[in-house]
Amino acid sequence: MLKLQPKFDLHRDVVCDILRKEASVCRVTEYSRAVDTCILNIERDGVILYSWKGATGTTRVGKYDPNTKQNKLLYTFDKQVCVSSCSLNKEETLLAVSLAQSSGGGHHRTMPKCLTLLIEIHPINNTKVLKAVDCRVRVQFLHQEADRGSVLESHLLLLTDDGYVDLYHVRLTKEEGYRVVMMNPERLSKVAERIVEDFRWIQWDGHTQRLYYLTHKDRFVLQCVQFFQNHSCETVLVLPLDLPAKSFSAVKFVNLGFDHHHMERVVQERVRMEVFTNRIGSMCVCYSQPVSDKEVIYTLVLVHKDCTKVFRVTLDDKESPQQTPCPHPLFIPIGYYILVYLPGHFLHCINTRQQEILCQSLFLPGGDAAVGLQCLAGDVSVLHVEEESSTALLDLANGMTYSAELSPTYLLQILGSDTPTCMPRLSSSETDPQRLAALHCLLVYMGNDPNLELKVIEWLCDNVMALESFDQIQEFILASLYRISYEKSLSLDKVLPYSSIFDKKEVPVCLLEVPGVFCTTVLHAQPGFKGKARSLQGFWSELQWNTERTKHLEAVPNPRYRTSSIQADWDNLRNERISSSHMNHIEENTKKVLSMVDTWCLDKMQVPLFQEEDHQQRALIGLTVDKLREHLNRHLPRLGKKKIDSLVVNYVAKLLEIIRHMLESVWLKSKLGPRVLCLAQQGSPAEWSMFHFMFRILEATRGLCLPLPPGYNTLLAVFGVRCLPHHTFLQYIDHGLLQLTETFVSRLMTDLDNSDANEKLKFSILKRLPQSMEQRIYQMWDHPVTSASISRDYVRSLLEKHSKSKGFAFTGRDKPGFRPEFLPLTYLAKILSDIEEQALNPFEEQENVDARFVEETALKQTLILLGFEEK
């Protein structure tokens, strides 16, 4: 499920270099003694701090720079010591270490359990004792993006087992132009600032410079201290949590280095907890209870969604009995997904942005749900990094770090088989939720990769028929649109359509329930944001807005836009039950959208779309813009009308672009060229596949009441007449499955010859044309029957004009005794109809008839009958 890329190997990158250096010190060819190398800490910039046992009875501290791939010795203790915590300031002038007392030797019993030192290392000079206490101490420098003026100042956090945190502001000075030393080191302890009192659990997030901690009086409360660029700090978040009263038997440190000497004596954790944030404004507090023989319980507090989700997963005794039971599942953040992994049992990929129903998250049961780690989950630590698309994992037992991201190959494998090899024990219906979650992960989370999108489109082509539980083409369209819009504005996840499931009256049970997984959702009070107005910027401002907006939208019925809600307005528009002013407004919307689409497609269009006046689709395009704009203005007025208008026009334009992109991909894959537009040829198997795929897109968009690109119905009708028998093609038209457009009928009349079969088809098409179109189409078919029809319609129109006037004025003179009702319209129409019935083809002796000539002849004959002209 995870694609792991090794980034650091302790043996390859560090130990081999150490052995060469120790051999040089000992003046031997090869140094073979153990060096006991231990990773101590990983700083914000990726620098890895480690210690090792030297050949001369010393303990050395070094660093590995992942950018230069170089190792550097930082400090050497003249005897072997137990380094339990270590941190290096950004300028690499100060090294803070905590030394644990060795368990051997009676003379150590009078010494404190922990000695914390601050050492000058540029060059090596003074050593200052910060703490000498009988509890564990962790040290961590702040790594802020500081200006040059503050280079001679460092800030050190000192965190103790006794549950308090101090902040040391270390002033530095330069001597002799290069020696960096502490200024007034004897005053450090006196000016230390107490940041936190009496915590039970604490986590450091180096990349965001945040300190999360839990306090407990009547209940557990999570708080966050944010460190700013000016070296000040402030409590910005207070969040009550419903944790068991005895959740932590000892103080727990997270992301504050690795105390190997204490880890050997660690007791069973009652609760494992970690906080993950994302720069787009989401915060998840994850914690789990110890795994029992029958089930595991884990909780996700989605702060940005103002809710808590508690999961209970039943464990199968038959699954991987050889696996050593894990005390807790492992939480791995990747973007806005949280992976909950229990080796040998399950992998739960939880969508923290769209969490309403379980099928938006991917649950993989069984021993095959692996993440690719070759170690126990308890030996894995998550390293917080700035990248959102991947995370970093540390295998502490083997000294390896990996960059981890979701594997698109694995997700495509889930899509591509009725019984995926990664899920051999699931039935076909049970795999639909996995397919849906995998599809959304590929399109929304990984959708910026064009090659990956093409592979998804290939899967759509190979699986044209709708799946049992959902329509994959509808999901492709809505998920792609959601990703595109979500990148424009981060506050749209609750109001834009995300899945066609929300439009279903009854959601299939398999999408609501995952076998063996029970979920309880609890709404909780809004978290307290305590930062000052100037401080709540960036992430905190976005998180506060997300929580406030979520709380507001929870009270609003149906805040998510449903595409099917446009159906009533669409029916009124088609039946011309709207005002002309509203119609003009809709047309203006359409022009904005199509002008944008034409600009995108100008240089790369393969499929002949966007090239005609399709009045119905143009009206639906404009109406969609109107209704979506109205919805966003109602629910997100904060965005402003100008931004909403731009977003909505872009949204509908992208909809047309997505459909065109699907057609382009299949068109190129099938190697279709311009010959497919010739109606005189039969369709090939590739064209039949194209027709079938286009027809499924038509069904999907009609089900969601979404517009199609102008020209789509014409191209679909062209494929229909080439691929279908004529009688089937006409049935498709009669049932409204295919729409006759003027462009298509015009080509049909001009491209097909007048063979018996083609004549019959043309007659059938003419009978099905709307009146507004038939007058223009008749004149395109050079055929005697159409000439007779043209003549009849021409005479009828003249007499209709005459019936509304007082008399004739053909010759400019009045005829005495003539009355207007001498030859009424109904009488002449009856005569012409009788003539036509007697001879179906009155001009059969002529091969070609000039329509204008027939009109003039009919007019002259009429004037003679009326007595206005002589024979």
Draw up the topology in text.
Blueprint: E1 2-9, H1 10-26, E2 38-42, E3 48-53, E4 59-65, E5 70-77, E6 82-88, E7 94-100, E8 114-121, E9 124-133, E10 137-141, E11 153-160, E12 164-175, E13 179-182, E14 193-197, E15 201-205, E16 210-216, E17 220-227, E18 233-241, E19 252-254, H2 260-263, E20 272-278, E21 282-288, E22 295-302, E23 307-314, E24 330-334, E25 337-342, E26 346-351, E27 362-365, E28 380-383, E29 391-395, E30 400-406, H3 408-415, H4 432-445, H5 450-462, H6 472-488, H7 509-512, E31 517-523, E32 528-529, H8 539-554, H9 567-574, H10 580-601, H11 615-635, H12 641-669, H13 685-704, H14 712-723, H15 726-734, H16 742-751, H17 756-767, H18 771-778, H19 784-803, H20 825-838, H21 851-866
Parallel strand pairs: 15-19
Antiparallel strand pairs: 1-30, 2-3, 3-4, 4-5, 6-7, 7-8, 8-9, 10-11, 11-12, 12-13, 12-14, 15-16, 16-17, 17-18, 18-32, 20-21, 21-22, 22-23, 23-31, 24-25, 25-26, 26-27, 28-29, 29-30
Helix pairs in contact: 3-4, 4-6, 6-12, 9-11, 10-11, 10-12, 11-12, 13-14, 19-20, 19-21
